[in-house]
Write a sequence for this structure.
């Protein structure tokens, strides 16, 4: 695999995962009450806890995108 192919892989991976994360965020914000209702009845936890867990998962996913796609892309783009 060449540097150009790796750069393209990491760049498009970052774009695709970021779009996926934004779609998840928009869906969550659009259907927050329904999601809270389903999770609160299924797992017997409070709505505030559900919100904290889901936003924590989104932040973790964002950090994973940054760590595994954006940083390698930047390194390959500007330092190689």
């Amino acid at each position: 695999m060449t540097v150009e192919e790796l750069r393209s892989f990491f760049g498009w991976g970052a774009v695709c995962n970021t779009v996926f994360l934004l779609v998840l965020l928009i869906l969550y914000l659009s259907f927050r009450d329904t999601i809270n209702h389903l999770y609160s009845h299924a797992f017997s936890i409070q709505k505030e806890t559900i919100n904290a867990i889901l936003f924590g998962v989104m932040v973790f996913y964002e950090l994973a995108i940054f760590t595994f796609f954006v940083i390698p892309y930047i390194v390959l783009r500007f330092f190689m």
About this structure: Residues 47-79 form the longest helix (33 residues). The chain has a mean pLDDT of 96.
